[in-house]
Amino acid sequence: IVAASYSGDSTSAPLPPSKPLKHRKSAAASAITSSSASQSGSKRRKGKAKRNPSHNVIEARYRLSINDKIKELRKKVAGKNTKIQKSGVLQLTLERLEAIDDENESLKKENANLRNAHESVVTQV
């Protein structure tokens, strides 16, 4: 596989080929392997496998980080003492962002109109 990048101009040189991908078993080969393993009487562990303790710590940090950010968003969009669910916080955030985008578009139009008006006044003088 050759990695390529489009930078907008045709004069840029292509990137060098990337390292070859590791070979994977075909779907048929993996199906044969899995069916023979299940027929050989190998027992699989039922239920959840034990997780690596360091992975659990990483997951806990990840959840804490997300929850902290949602708390910050709640304060910004709903107020400090408002009790709403996480999905509600995200919904309010999306609504606020849409309102900001709409206001930004109207301000861009107003700015363009004012520039045009200014240009017409300057050219008349």
Short description:
The chain is mainly α and 125 residues long. It has three helices and no strands.
Topology of this protein?
Elements lengths: L26 H13 L13 H25 L8 H39 L1
Structural class estimated from helices and strands: mainly alpha
SSE pattern, N- to C-terminal: HHH
Total strands: the figure is: 0
| Major sheet description | none
Morphology call: elongated
Structure in words:
- This protein has helices spanning 27-39, 53-77, 86-124.
- The chain has 3 helices and no strands.
- Helix 2 (53-77) packs across helix 3 (86-124).
- The protein starts with 26 loop residues before the first helix and ends with a helix.
Features:
mainly alpha, 125 residues, disordered N terminus, elongated
